[in-house]
Amino acid sequence: MLILAIDTSADETAAAVTSERKVLSNVRYSQILLHKKWGGIYPSVAKRAHEERIDWVVDETFKKLKVKSEKLKVEDVDYIAVTQGPGLAVALEVGIKKAVELAKKYKKKLISVNHLEGHIYSCFVQNSNGNPKRDFRFPYLALIVSGGHTEIVLFKDQVDYKVLGETRDDAAGEALDKAARMLGFGYPGGSVIERLASEVDNKDFFNFPRPMIKSNNLDFSFSGLKTSFYYFLHSRVIARSKATKQSHLRSPRPAFGGTRDDNNIALDIRQLASSFQEAVFETLLIKTDLAIKQTTINRIVVGGGVIANLYLRKLLRILVKKYRGEVLFPPFKYLTGDNAAMIGVAANYKAKKRLFVKDFKLERIPRLRLS
Amino acid sequence: MKIIPLEKAKMREILTVLNAGGLIVSPSDTVYGLLADATSENAVQKLTQFKNRPPGKPISVFVSDFSMLKEQVEIEKKQLRLLQELLPGPFTVILPSEHKVSPLLESEKRTIGLRIPDYRFIKTLVRNFGKPVTATSANLAGRSPHYSVQSLLNELPENKKKLIDLIVDAGMLPRNKPSTIVDLTAPQIKILRQGDIVFKDKKTYISKSPAQTIKIAAFILQKILREKSKKPLIFILEGELGVGKTVFVKGIGEFLGIKNIISPTYVVYYEYVSINQLIETFVHVDLYNIQEADEFKYLGLEKYLKKGNLLCFEWGEKAGEIIDLLKQKGKIAYVRIRYISEKKREITIRFGQSQMSKLKSQNQNSKL
User: Fold this and answer.
1) Which of A38, A169, A237 to mutate to test the interface with B (most CBs of B within 10 A)?
2) Which CATH architecture has domain B2-193?
3) Domain identity same for A323 and A225
4) Percentage with pLDDT > 90 across chain B
5) Which of A264, A363, B56, B363 has the greatest count of CB atoms below 10 A from its CB?
């Protein structure tokens, strides 16, 4: 069963051709470089870039595709899948428009996929040789941690989900990005924080709050942590500028970057980054632990950009060991970010359940929920 | 003692009880309250007997609108302007009494506490009754107020129950705090009791928690929505990182029945469908990542600028040039949130010039 999948939920223009769980061809046009300038996704830029690149990306996907040394075209696929949401409205529209157009033109059935489903299935994506050969051993707990999402989902069976907890404000990845920005670094900030934290052995120096860990539910909230961090930095800046008779407060964003040369402060920044990351990760760990206890499910799948962080992977491995369970991560690095391969694999299971879009009527839903 | 559900309550029956000097337990915009004819000595005596209220402790009254309010108290123009910004709402205001209600309700200084509730049932009732009605919480003196009839009845001994003539039951009320009590008799406004919504002056609110910020946001939105508009409504929020801008937007969303608002930073904006009749689409925009104001015009938000839509812009200070476009096409409310301390915030609301004058004239003509 060949599927052409398209994802334009945020800043990647992505297409892939998959067969069952195998990725036969995968193309992404990353806009990260484009957005670095803006310090994040920039809607109009994203929309224009998606529009300019979507045709090229789809063509390229087929150019790279070979099945038994035979060239394939769009008409050769069985289904066309596309991300309906969640994501940026103007970006989603571009992918949906293209998918609908192709499905109509080649009379293919259309499959709508929730971007979060994609992240959940990313742990089961295989390369073109069918590796890794992971079997499904339901039920799972799925932890999704990215720049836009933080959720714990009960993954009961194929295409069967129940959201157990989610963030009420900021996502974990967003919190890390914002903390990086407060420390004077650019977008995306998560990897900078990871590096700085590893330089001080991921230790916790300042003990920032672990939000909502006493709530006994599985929801997250990272905005209060952001407030504490901001307030903490500001009080330090005030103290320091009083000492040096120099005000850092007037700049629109706290420009800690400007003082990075100073050795003492450089140490400070590493400690700050590490302590902040520790607060975010420990919160994720505590909630995952609670989810394991509440559901008695000890098998976990993790998806989303934040799980590119190797230290977080280590912490999760230690956690499941305690419960004699297992934890699966996306097997290839590109699967942690946004991509269409995971959308194609999720669509495969939707096709098996005959879950198709009726009459090519598909509206983007920017805050689409898993159900 | 008779219990009737709110939806079956008949105005005539209730007015008969009040006219006969009876006591009525009624739901309100805050907690369950005790209603009695505020001008009847007997009715008020029965009320103080019920509450075990020590003599000399004042009891506030409900009035239906500003014209009834003006009959009851001495009020200066400046004070009136402040009240027109706030009422109806969860506030009790203290002013010098004109002594038209029972003296038992007044303080030793001969002042009286007044409420114009934001609760249709009580407003209609008081308007039909044509006189002020007592507005004290339905609990014994020194006890906590009640959010359900059941919890009130559990507290009451039989002899107290006998004093109640009628109970209007609206089930479980939302856990709103009792009203904020504001003393306007001193030269400086004094807050005597903090309810959910605390203000400093007519444009400035004080929040001590995210929960309070949410309530303040809903309160402000509710006020604005009383005025019909042919333009989209636009909130422009300003304030430092972590100050609670998204929390404020959550309050706006909750009022519109949207409970799943999260930070849109990652995608710049999210669009939601409102279940409120007055608002169709709700758009939550975060300009945090925007660095150059002139690029702003490419956001693709113009299509949302139409009647019946509500847009909230976080980091509104970055809106720059587009402010002119927004001003031209929409009705704007500026919200500035400031850190007072790590937990405490000051929320200031400011409207465009035309908006302000319209709001005033509308309030003066209001028939509440």
Assistant:
1) A169
2) Alpha-Beta Complex (3.90)
3) yes
4) 63
5) B363
pLDDT, tens only, A213-270: 888 999 999 998 999 999 898 887 666 665 655 444 333 344 444 444 444 455 589 9
Calculate the average pLDDT of chain A.
89
User: Does A194 show up as a binding residue in the annotation?
Assistant: yes
Does A88 touch chain B if contact means CB atoms closer than 8 Å? yes
- Within chain B, residue ranges assigned H as helices are 11-19, 41-51, 66-72, 77-86, 120-129, 149-155, 158-161, 210-225, 245-255, 322-329, 353-365
Mutation target for A interface from B238, B248, B265: give the one with most A CBs within 10 A. B265
List pLDDT tens digits, range A129-146: 999 999 999 999 999 999
Chain segment B254-274, per-residue pLDDT in tens: 999 999 899 888 788 898 988
CATH code: domain of residue A183: 3.30.420.40
- CB-based contact A231 B270, cutoff 8 Å: no
A149 and A289 in one domain?
A: yes
pLDDT given at position B365? 45
- For residues A242 and A303, state if they share a domain: yes
Question: The dihedral of CA A333, A334, A338, A339: what is its sign?
Answer: negative
Query: What is the structure's pLDDT at B323?
Result: 77
Check: CB of residue A134 under 8 Å from CB of residue A328: yes
CB within 8 Å: A230 and B267: no
A147 touches chain B (CB under 8 A): yes
**A155 and A285 fall within a common domain:** yes
Please check whether residue A365 lies inside any domain of the structure.
Answer: no
Q: Report the residue of chain B nearest A233, measured CA to CA.
A: B241
End-to-end CA distance of chain A: 25
CB contact under 8 A, B300 and A47: yes
A41 contacts in chain B (CB < 8 Å): 266-268, 289
A366 inside 8 A of chain B by CB: yes
Q: Where are the domains of chain B?
A: 2-193, 203-361
What residues have CB less than 8 Å from B291, skipping those under 6 apart?
Answer: A37, A38, A39
**Does the complex come out with an ipTM higher than 0.85?**
no
What is the residue range of A22's domain?
A: 2-134+333-360
Q: Which residues on B lie below 8 Å from A10 (Cβ)? A: 266-267
Clarify whether residues A113 and A31 are in a common domain.
yes
- Higher pLDDT, residue B339 or B292: B339
Sign of CA dihedral A269, A213, A188, A16: positive
A276 within domain boundaries: yes
CATH dotted code for B203-361: 3.40.50.300
